[in-house]
Design a protein that fits this description.
Blueprint lengths: L11 E4 L7 E4 L1 H5 L1 H12 L9 E5 L2 H13 L2 E7 L7 E8 L2 E8 L8 E9 L3 H12 L3 E10 L5 H7 L4 E6 L4
Parallel strand pairs: 3-4, 3-7, 7-8, 8-9
Antiparallel strand pairs: 1-2, 4-6, 5-6
Helix pairs in contact: 2-3
């Protein structure tokens, strides 16, 4: 029976985390299972077979896990986009809105060269705020985004539409209803 499992089957839902009313989609159970993790990485790579990709950019923090594995499979470099104050060296930053406030992400100012083809990855697409901020950073450095890939989309929160309105190609492995 486990041979027929989909990526979605490996993801657990934790009710009322981090606070009441939230259905937290936990990908750590997917990452912990070697077959599930392999399926996810293979499916995230599949749409880009034969495409030129120079670097994979992972969004903090679970995007680092996915991005590292995908970059390894593609034999390309990996670049992290991190929360403010976490990267050593010279960075550029971008602020963005959260449900209850604002945040800032950063990238090293020499991490991407003009014209490089970039694949952006993360585990979850909700409102699209973090991904939008990451895209703006990449574009400021002259990177050309090939696509944005996510394991989970929460369509009710509208992130997919936000990224598409920016002209982004968006690939997701599964969707969950609700918040």
């Amino acid at each position: 029976m486990s041979r027929n499992k989909t990526v979605k089957d490996y993801i657990r839902t934790i009710v009322d985390f981090p606070h009441e009313g939230i259905m937290f989609r936990d990908v750590t159970t997917l990452f912990a299972d070697p077959r599930g993790f392999r399926i996810a990485i293979d499916q995230m790579l599949h749409p880009y077979a034969g495409e030129r990709i120079d670097k994979v950019v992972g969004l903090e923090a679970r995007g680092f896990i996915l991005g590292g594995a995908i970059a390894h499979q593609l034999s390309v470099g990996f670049v992290p986009i991190r929360k403010k104050g976490k990267l050593p060296g010279t960075t550029i930053s971008q602020d963005y809105k959260l449900e209850y406030g604002e945040a800032i992400v950063e990238i090293h100012d020499d991490a991407i060269q003009p014209g490089e083809k970039i694949l952006v990855v993360d585990d979850l697409l909700a409102t699209g705020g973090t991904a939008e901020a990451g895209i703006k950073l990449i574009e400021r450095l002259g990177g050309e985004i090939v696509s944005c890939a996510f394991i989970i989309d929460l369509p009710e929160l509208g992130g997919h539409k936000v990224l598409e309105s920016m002209g982004m190609d968006v690939h997701v492995l599964c969707e969950f209803e609700g918040l």
